[in-house]
Write a structure and sequence with these properties.
Layout (H helix, E strand, L loop, with lengths): L19 H4 L10 E3 L18 H4 L31 H17 L7 H15 L4 H13 L7 H7 L5 H4 L41 E2 L9 E4 L6 E5 L6 E5 L1 E5 L4 H13 L5 E2 L12 E4 L6 E8 L6 E7 L2 E5 L4 E6 L5 E6 L6 E4 L6 H7 L4 E5 L2 E8 L11 E3 L20 E5 L17 E3 L11 E4 L13 E6 L8 H12 L4 E4 L1 H7 L5 E10 L9 E8 L8 E3 L4 E3 L4 E3 L1 E3 L9 E9 L17 E3 L1 H7 L6 E13 L5 E5 L3 E8 L14 E4 L6 E5 L17 E7 L18 E3 L2 E5 L12 E11 L8 E12 L9 E6 L8 E2 L4 E7 L2 H6 L8 E6 L2 E2 L16 E4 L16 E12 L6 E13 L3 E2 L7 E4 L3 E3 L4 E6 L2 E2 L4 E9 L2 E9 L3 E5 L5 E11 L9 E8 L4 H14 L2 H6 L3 H23 L11 H16 L5 H10 L8 H20 L7 H21 L16 H20 L13 H8 ...
Parallel strand pairs: 12-18, 19-24, 26-33, 34-40, 42-48, 51-58
Antiparallel strand pairs: 1-59, 2-6, 3-6, 4-5, 7-11, 8-11, 9-10, 12-13, 13-16, 14-15, 15-16, 17-18, 20-22, 21-23, 23-24, 25-28, 27-30, 29-31, 31-32, 31-33, 35-38, 36-39, 37-38, 39-40, 41-43, 43-46, 44-45, 44-47, 47-48, 49-53, 50-52, 52-56, 54-55, 54-57, 57-58, 59-60, 60-62, 61-67, 63-66, 64-65, ...
Helix pairs in contact: 3-6, 4-5, 5-12, 14-16, 14-17, 16-17, 16-18, 17-19, 18-19, 19-20, 19-21
């Protein structure tokens, strides 16, 4: 539905309006519409259940952009009035916000420092209640970087969503316009800080010292950025945020990076030992070398001086008569690196650089030893070393022989590339320099004697699974032991240690029998030790874990600290721990926790005890504290237990703190050129005189606006051989014009080889942050390739290849995910003018010189002869078909051939883009069993908790682990990913067999391993009656007050799962127990109610992990009464609101689908039992207003869709809702295309009683009339399905829209710019379904209004254009798409962010921009021009009665 009163900052709300708002609310019964459980359209509607989104359940769910006045996270919101006032204009919204925040905050408050400013902003923004938590937090984050932001009201309004630059542009405000950098919010106000970077230069004269560009230096100097010289902040007038720009230093032009690189190259290649006299035919080279003709670039005695007349550097040198070339290129040696994650192979000569899978170089025997993910590389920094980077599945060991392939053509000489390396080398150990493996133990520091002795001890575990070897390979051995520094263990504990060693166990199990035996003596500490050994035989240091058996009078809660060893700065840090719920005995005991950071540490100062076991350190907290890349801090958790005594007094016990060190890692920089940077082929002497390379698209994920550190840019040029010069002659130097991230070069300065062929040049940018000598130093590189065609040649095709991965591609792509690329012809107009048939272009794609075939592509009918391709990922399903290696550097090349229209021949050209590829985590066990259950896969009800462990996964970065169940091929996430390799999973469905899974996820790139699974079995407790009794007994022992008192939301949510398990087991057993004993008030029902209340309360944390945990805890909840139904619905409402307001990413369909389905169960019960007084409950919620209910239904679905449509981490489940869009989804990698689907039961039109009920209701009349027609699909049955789906990559549909001049009849012909897709493809609509789920709304109209967002990169091209709404339908002949304009002549300009399309059919919709025909001159005697023609019979007008009723 088109948002009412939506602000302009969230234009991607894609809703369909089809009879729902005015009609559906009245269509089901006097009180409630009836809905079915949420599921995919392909899923049979087995249970018809209600999805009643009543006022209590769904009030406040919508974001304020969905419903006018609503506010995510603040209840209740305001819903549209029956006659809504016209929405405020963007200017009105912006200026009102500026006035409000200026008077209430920026000019009212004084700030002592950034911390004070952040605290006062949080208080103010939270108190307003007008903005989402995410927007308030975003503003706080920016204030934490620069205190000046807190004094700029317009900047704050932009951050909370009310003042985008486009909204404010041209808004009149206080004798001026909006000013983002001023104290008043008007551009006439005083500037806070500076807006000009040059004002921050230290130099009094711009001829020496620091600089921003070379224009700040004198004529013989240039501005150098190769070192960290500091930075200058300035306010961006379009955002109001401070950005920083790196300062350079004015240096002599002989210090230019290109000249320094040339000096280094000359020293490396052309020393006195490398040069010989080839004229006298004497071989005056050392043994093993032969004198030959010198390379053109060879020179000696290189010197530089700046010409005082031209002020340019000049190089002088001596030429070479000849050069010494090694006769035979061979491997010299091989040795493990210190970490054993690589083998360093010595070469007897310099080699050309590359980075490829090792299968390209080594024979099959060697390749198998090196493993599937091994990559081989030679770098510019060390051309005499071949680096073999290993992954965890490598088996190579000391004394193994590495043998090159006899036909390898990659490892070649640097100065003589026609010569290839040959031979073999034996691998040696790293010896005394080998890095020892790291042993780690985690487990409870204290174990309390059982609260009820008869119940015994809960099984505890001391876990070593976080131990690792730096090589990434599995450990060879674990040696468990005990320390004599502590109490000598009793025999039972010694026996467990022996068993762990004998069976090579990763965990030491402390079960009831062991703990009972060692627990006779209380308050005694035992020390468990561990050593681990790497595959090289290197042993770790011995680590120790201490635990104490505590008496009731000395006990504190038992906790396990769950911290990662490292975290990205942009991710912040969540301090968390698990707690043994049995260590809190009753409702009179309350656990408290305090997180500290050991000095010296700038975090958590003044920390106090809290009821929550979790504490978040946000990105802004890290900024405030100045935590930089590479910082390491030790965090400690202190636990205390507060007990209320019988006399009302309290006593408190405090345990010794538990500690763990965490390293803060800077995000990898992303170096990237903008799309309009030069690329492809250029004709020498042609129309193009200069080319520009713009690296401003480079980014730092941990500092997106470069507020914290400036980004430095260093440019260079190389030839493919890595030796020859790029510019002028051998003695000339050319540096072009460098201005920050921009490098402009004169094409006439590029050297010509004069061989008649194209000359190729590789332009490179290196971006850097931090100091080279510091731990915060980070760098990345990007390249662009151009080729210069000899003058007089035929016009070449100039093309550009882009990787399609969203706004910013990551530093590394994942081989386990599809990779998409497109090619753009940048000089199509020039080619067309020369007679080229651009629309008949043919495409040939290559990956590292290997031709891409149709079989390499996703999609049954996908063609490699296409302007866009999507490569099959490296996953088991496509292992034999993919062209992708596991890892390494890819050169993705596309050759474009355009035939001539009138003569024989063609135009051609090629373009290339580099891609750095990383592999997803893999299981490195030879048996493939990377999941284990401790202690056994079989348990007996009511013991429903299985401890599941991930083991032997290996990845490029630190790993997280996701656990869950597999049912009917679908995954049900039971524990969201975190760093702990083990999880306690509760079986909720009663006795039976289950399949559990684990997936290892790379914490940096999001790559997901293949799913490892294991079967578990929950045995019955005996007869049906015995199962019922056991379930009832288990429920009686479940105490939610105790779980709440533990301070762990995870413990409460686990308790909810146990309550589900006991209730479901009892219900299932009761269904088969004809002689069951009925209890008036069974404990299973009481625990379900208590559990739902406690679970709902966990959502007050407003944390994403708690929201996901709550949703997973109610997958199996079946409410039995109105109270449970209301609580269940509220849990889903609040959890979805958190995911929405926090802009949760990486959330897929399966994370929310089952929980949303539970709403159908709950509302089915509400519709049956909620009557009379229930309609107005004690909270004042009103279920009577059908219009309000309908709006809440829409809001809920919209918010669910908003969560699902966001950019998702790699591997998130995607689902398609129709065969046509399935093809697009399979080829779409920009955003996870997920769906939210609901089916509604509506009164069918053949039900006279239902029709009579609404006979006098005007708001429902249209719906009743529609369903009353015998031709209507709802005449005989009434299941109405809503599905929402979006694919953001319009290039998928290029073939369907390339003939758009013929489609858009009102496109001006000839127009210089052809119609183009300016949006993604949306499928968002209602559909009547038959009972088997097949669509029947094929001939009848399904009217709706779609609001389709315009892609941000298309907005700048819209001035002077119109937009057309185009429907894409499947073409059965070629599995492609047919395009049809359904609405044209839509007004757009550069400020447009969306277009509303009134449509009436199923299908996919996309926006096209086109050039309208100029208005014809007015006829004689008329002052009114005639309207522009529109395509006949293509505009479908909105049907009547689609406006909300008054």
């Amino acid at each position: 539905m088109v948002p009412m009163g939506a602000s302009n900052n969230q234009q991607a709300v894609l809703l369909a309006t089809l009879l729902l708002a005015p009609f559906l609310a009245h269509a089901a019964s006097d009180q409630y519409p009836v809905f079915s459980e949420i599921g995919l359209l392909s899923q049979a509607f087995e249970e018809q259940q209600q999805l009643l989104n009543d006022a209590d359940v769904f009030q406040g769910f919508a974001s304020r952009d969905l419903l006018q006045g609503g506010n995510t996270g603040t209840y209740p919101p305001t819903y549209p009035s029956p006659s809504p006032a016209p929405p405020a204009t963007p200017c009105e919204i912006c200026t009102a916000c500026v006035t409000k925040i200026r008077e209430g905050f920026t000019m009212k408050e004084d700030f002592a420092n950034k911390t004070d400013a952040v605290n006062k902003w949080n208080t103010y923004c939270g108190g307003l209640g007008d903005y989402s938590d995410a927007n308030c937090e975003e503003a706080a984050n920016k204030i934490s970087i620069s205190e000046d932001v807190a004094k700029r009201p317009a900047a704050l309004c932009r951050l909370v969503g009310d003042c985008g630059f486009g909204d404010a542009n041209g808004c009149d405000f206080e004798d001026g316009t909006i000013g983002f950098c001023t104290t008043t919010g008007a551009d006439t106000g005083a500037i806070v800080g500076r807006t000009n970077f040059t004002e921050g230069l230290d130099s009094t004269t711009p001829t020496s010292g620091d600089c921003l560009t070379s224009s700040n230096c004198n004529a013989t100097s240039f501005c150098d950025f190769s070192m960290d010289y500091g930075s200058i902040p300035a306010c961006d007038t379009e955002t109001g945020l401070d950005t920083t720009r790196a300062k350079g230093m004015c240096l002599d032009k002989c210090e230019l990076p290109a000249i320094q690189a040339e000096k280094e190259r000359v020293a490396l290649l052309f020393s006195s030992e490398d040069v010989c006299d080839n004229n006298d035919n004497a071989n005056n080279c050392t043994t093993g070398f032969q004198c030959g003709a010198a390379l053109t670039a060879c020179r000696t005695d290189l010197e530089c001086k700046v010409n005082t007349t031209t002020n340019e550097p000049e190089l002088t040198s001596n030429s070479c008569a000849g050069m010494c070339f090694r006769v035979s290129l061979e491997l010299d040696s091989a040795k493990f690196s210190d970490d054993a994650d690589a083998i360093m192979v010595g070469l007897n000569e310099l080699a050309s650089t590359f980075n490829v899978p090792c299968q390209s170089i080594f024979n099959s025997t060697t390749s198998e030893m090196l493993g599937s993910g091994a990559t081989c590389s030679v770098t510019e920094e060390d051309r005499k070393t071949l680096v073999i980077s290993l992954t965890g599945d490598a088996t190579v060991n000391v004394a193994d022989v590495l043998t090159l392939r006899s036909d390898q053509g990659v490892l070649e000489g640097y100065t003589n590339p026609e010569e290839k390396f040959t031979g073999s080398a034996t691998v040696a150990t790293c010896g005394s320099s080998c890095t020892p493996p790291t042993a780690r133990l985690f487990g409870p520091a204290t174990i309390r004697k059982p609260c009820i002795i008869a119940n015994g001890y809960k099984t505890n575990f001391i876990d070593s699974s976080n131990s690792f070897s730096a090589s990434g390979r599995g450990l060879k051995k674990r040696t468990w032991g005990h320390s004599t520094a502590c109490t000598t263990p009793p025999q039972e504990l010694l026996d467990e240690i022996t068993r762990a060693n004998d069976e090579s166990l990763e965990v030491l199990e402390l079960n009831n029998s062991t703990l009972s035996a060692i627990g006779d003596t209380s308050d005694v500490t035992y020390c468990i030790t561990l050593e681990v050994e790497s595959f090289l035989g290197v042993t770790s240091n011995t680590v120790e874990h201490r635990f104490t058996i505590q008496t009731a009078t000395s006990a504190t809660p038992s906790v396990n600290v769950l911290l990662p060893t490292s975290t990205l700065i942009s991710s912040g840090l969540t301090l968390s721990a698990s707690v043994d719920t049995s260590s809190v005995c009753d409702g009179n005991e309350v656990a408290q926790y305090k997180w500290d950071c050991e000095d010296p540490c700038p975090l958590l100062s003044g920390s106090q005890f809290s009821r929550s076991i979790v504490r978040d350190i946000s990105f802004s907290d890290l900024n405030l504290a100045g935590v930089g890349a590479g910082a390491k801090y030790t965090f400690q958790l202190t636990v205390s237990l507060v007990k209320t005594n019988s006399d009302g007094s309290t006593s408190e016990r405090e345990a010794d703190p538990v500690k763990q060190e965490v390293e803060f890692v800077g995000d990898p920089l992303v170096a990237r050129f903008t799309q309009d940077s030069a690329a492809g082929n250029y004709l020498r002497g042609g129309d193009t005189a200069s080319v520009t390379f713009d690296a401003s698209a480079s980014s730092d994920p941990s500092d997106p606006e470069n507020n914290v550190q400036p980004m430095r840019f260093t440019f260079s040029c190389q030839r493919p051989d890595g030796i020859s010069n790029c510019f002028d002659s051998i003695d000339g130097v050319y540096n072009g014009v460098i201005d920050g991230a921009m490098w402009t070069l004169d094409l006439n300065k590029f050297v010509s080889d004069n061989d008649g062929d194209a000359d190729t040049f590789i332009l490179r940018v290196e971006v850097a942050k931090g100091s080279q000598a510091g731990s915060d130093f980070r760098t990345a590189r990007a390249t662009r390739t151009i080729s210069l065609i000899p003058a007089g040649s035929q016009v070449p095709v100039r093309a550009r290849v882009d990787q399609l991965c969203g706004d910013v591609c990551p530093a590394a792509s994942i081989s386990s995910e599809p990779l998409s690329f497109s090619v753009a012809i940048e000089n199509s107009v020039a080619i067309g003018a020369e007679g080229g048939s651009v629309d008949q272009a043919e495409y040939s794609w290559y990956i590292n010189d290997e031709l891409v075939a149709d079989s390499h592509l996703l999609g049954d009918s996908a063609s490699a002869n296409s302007a866009s391709i999507t490569l099959k990922p490296l996953v088991p399903e496509y292992e034999e078909e993919t062209i992708l290696p596991r890892s390494g550097d890819l050169a993705v090349n596309c050759t474009v051939t355009i035939p001539k229209s009138d003569t024989e021949g063609s135009f051609s050209g090629s373009a290339v883009t580099p891609v750095n590829l990383e592999g997803a985590p893999i299981c490195v066990r030879s048996d493939g069993k990377c999941i284990n259950v401790v202690p056994d896969t079989n348990q007996t009800f009511p013991d429903i908790t299985f401890r599941v462990q991930a083991r032997a996964f290996s990845g490029a970065n630190a790993l997280n682990y996701e656990f869950g169940f597999v049912q009917d091929g679908e995954t049900q996430v039971a524990r969201v990913a975190d760093s702990s390799p083990s999880a306690d999973l509760d079986v909720q469905g009663g006795p039976g067999s289950y399949k559990v899974y684990v997936v290892a996820i790379d914490s940096r790139n999001g790559g997901r391993s293949a799913r490892a699974t294991i079967d578990i079995f929950l045995e019955s407790a005996g007869t049906a009656q015995q199962v019922e009794d056991a379930a009832e007994q288990g429920a009686q022992e479940l105490d939610f007050q105790v779980l709440v008192n533990t301070g762990s939301n995870a413990a409460v949510q686990a308790g909810m799962k146990k309550a589900n398990a006991f209730k479901n087991a009892k219900r299932n057993a009761g269904n088969s127990n004809s002689g069951r004993r009925l209890l008036a008030e069974p404990a299973t029902e009481a625990r379900t109610t208590e559990g739902l209340k406690a679970t709902l309360n966990t959502l007050t944390s407003n944390r994403v992990s708690d929201a996901l945990g709550a949703l997973s805890s109610i997958f199996e909840t079946t409410p039995s009464n109105v109270t449970q139904a209301e609580l269940l619905a509220k849990i889903v409402r609040d959890a979805m609101a958190i995911l929405d307001s926090k802009e949760a990413r990486g959330v897929g369909t399966n994370d929310v689908r089952l929980a949303l389905g539970r709403l159908g169960v709950a509302t089915d019960l509400l519709s049956e039992q909620c009557t009379g007084d229930c309609l107005e409950n004690s909270n004042g919620d009103n279920y009577r207003d059908h219009w309000e209910i309908a709006m809440m239904v829409e809001s809920t679905l919209a918010s669910a869709w908003e969560v699902l449509r966001r950019t998702a981490a790699a591997g998130v489940t995607t689902q398609a809702v129709s065969p046509a869009i399935a093809q697009a989804v399979s080829r779409n990698t920009i955003k996870a295309t997920s769906t939210a689907v609901v089916a509604f039961n509506v009164e069918n039109g053949n039900d006279q009683k239902a029709r009579a009920r609404f006979a006098n209701d005007e708001s429902a009349k249209a719906f009743v009339d529609y369903c009353g027609k015998s031709t209507s699909p709802c005449y005989e049955q009434g299941i109405l399905a809503l599905y929402l789906s979006y694919v953001t990559n319009p290039a998928i549909y290029t073939n369907a829209t390339k003939d758009v001049p013929d489609i858009v009849g009102s496109h001006s012909d000839p127009a210089s710019v052809q119609p183009a897709a300016i949006s993604g493809v949306m499928e968002v609509q209602f559909d009547f379904k038959q009972e088997d789920g097949d669509s029947v709304c094929t001939s009848d109209e399904c009217p709706m209004v779609l609001e389709i967002p315009i892609n941000t990169d298309s907005q700048s091209m819209l001035d002077g254009k119109k937009a057309a709404c185009v429907r894409l339908t499947g073409n059965a002949d070629n599995n492609g798409f047919i395009a049809e304009v359904v609405e044209a002549d839509k007004d757009v300009d550069s400020s447009s962010t969306s277009v509303q399309c009134t449509v009436s059919k199923l299908g996919q919709y996309i926006l096209l921009s086109y050039t309208p025909a100029p208005a014809p001159p007015p006829p004689p005697g008329s002052e009114e021009p005639s309207p522009s023609p529109s395509p006949p019979d293509q505009i479908i007008y909105p049907p009547p009665h689609t406006v909300p009723p008054p």
